[in-house]
Amino acid sequence: MQSAREVQSAQEVRLGDRRLVGQLQARRKLEQTLQSGRLGHAYLLTGPQGSGKNALALAMAEWINGVDHLSDLGTDAFSGKSSWFHHPDIHFFLPLPSQTGASELASRLQLLSKDPYELVDFALRPSLHSDKQSSNRRAFYAIDYYREQIRPVTVLTPNEGRRTIVILTEIQTMRRESANAFLKLLEEPGENLMFILTATGSHQLLPTIVSRCQQIQLRTLQPEEIRDGLMRFDGMGREDAELLSRLTDGNYAMARFLDVNQLREIRGEMIQFLRLSYIQDAKQLAALVGKWQRTLNLENQIALCNSMELILRDLIVFGATEDESLVLNADQLDVIQAFQRSMKDARLEEMIGHLNSLKGLLYQNVQFSLIFSVLSFRFHRLLRGHPTEIDPEEPWQHLPALRKES
User: Are 18 and 71 in contact (CB under 8 A)?
Assistant: First the structure.
């Protein structure tokens, strides 16, 4: 048993070679650490949503505790468990909304055990049972959650692994009281205790927490990495994989969750939204935006925004070059050509800026219909070559009763 617990790897192993997508630089850095046998007590994985932080954390935990699953460990495997989910020394936590039941958390961990890229974040996937639920659920690490569920596992000695490994995801959501309590634990960790933390960025964390961790930075995945991942691991055809890889802002987890057929269907509706915004047909705009709000979950709403941005970028590129080969939405070439002929003065780059600015509000639980109503007002002016009537810094002036006196 002593040889099984030796940390130094007896062979060259590729971290996550059976499932991970991209992030080769981060993976190689961790491989060097793991194969050297010089393990720290806390690691911080930072990177954007969907970049694979959960998957990398789980692959790392499995390697340390000898689980042959996400990585082909070969002779380095010493655990009889089939995955991290069944290992007694690997504990996974994610931020929880208020009044979340134990069964709901267990269901998400069960889902994650089937694939490390499953969307289990309550903010991005409010319900596992209804993909149409778009309102996110604010999740965080409350002090009671820390004291009752997280703190107790940190005093456990390893049962069959090298370390008791505690994975805490998205720790930027820790409430101050929880962060201060956790900091005390980081300052005096147990001998065989290891933390693997994830966050979207270290700037959101207490500097004293960051300073006690070895930091590994993940980058935004490239479209070709997402495309190849969808084809290799999700059995997707190249055409569908190409489309999704361009619509998800480097978020592989979101790409595999989206309904590509639905996205193709609503692309024509996006063109209609631009036309209706130009003429300001309030009745039809309200009907179209209302339909999107009812039928699209948060992930598909984000993808809709990204798809609209690609159409606007195609208009910019084709207008500047008239090169059909550079158009990403090649099947919409006739529409793009007609648009260029009739709306040569449209301020397309500004439209993209407003779209991205308002898209960020979706993550803050702002109602989709309100966001796109404001967007249509702004597009109405920009499509005609005029600046927006209302300063983006004063969006409340879209409400006539609150407008300033002229």
Answer: yes
Q: Cα–Cα distance between 119 and 240 in angstroms, integer?
A: 20
Tokens of residue 398, six digits:
């879209």
DSSP state of 361: G
pTM, full prediction? 0.80
Separation of alpha carbons 283 and 288, rounded Å:
9
- In this prediction, residue 207 carries a pLDDT of 93
User: What tokens were used for 231?
Assistant: 């084809």
Placement of tokens 């590129």 in the chain:
317
The H-assigned helical ranges of 37-153 are: 53-64, 102-114, 143-145, 151-153
In this structure, are residues 199 and 171 in contact, taking their beta carbons and an 8 Å threshold?
yes
Q: For tokens 């309550």, what's the residue?
A: 122
Beta strands in 131-246 (DSSP E): 164-168, 193-199, 214-217
State how far the Cα of 2 lies from the Cα of 340, in Å rounded to an integer: 71
Q: Where are the alpha helices (DSSP H) in 6-52?
A: 24-36
What integer pLDDT is reported at residue 136 of this predicted model? 56
Rounded CA-CA distance 352/347 in Å is 9
User: What is the pLDDT at residue 142?
Assistant: 93
Per-residue pLDDT at 2: 37
Low-confidence stretches of the chain (pLDDT beneath 70): 1-11, 130-137, 390-406
Phi-psi region of 161 (alpha: psi -120 to 50; beta: other; left: phi over 0): beta
What structural domains and CATH numbers belong to the chain?
2-219 (3.40.50.300), 259-402 (no CATH)
Do 81 and 87 touch, CB atoms closer than 8 A?
Answer: yes
Which sign does the torsion angle of CA 224, 226, 229, 235 carry?
negative
Written as six digits, the tokens of 139 are 């999740």
DSSP symbol at 96: B
Residues 6+ apart with CB under 8 A from 146: 178, 181, 182
The residues, ordered by sequence, that sit 6+ positions from 195 with a Cβ below 8 Å of its Cβ are 41, 42, 43, 165, 166, 167, 168, 186, 189, 213
Q: What are phi and psi of 339, to 5 degrees?
A: -60, -45
According to the model, what pLDDT value does residue 36 have? 84
Res 404: pLDDT: 54
CA distances from 12 to 5, 16, 31, 43, 72 (A): 17, 13, 9, 21, 10
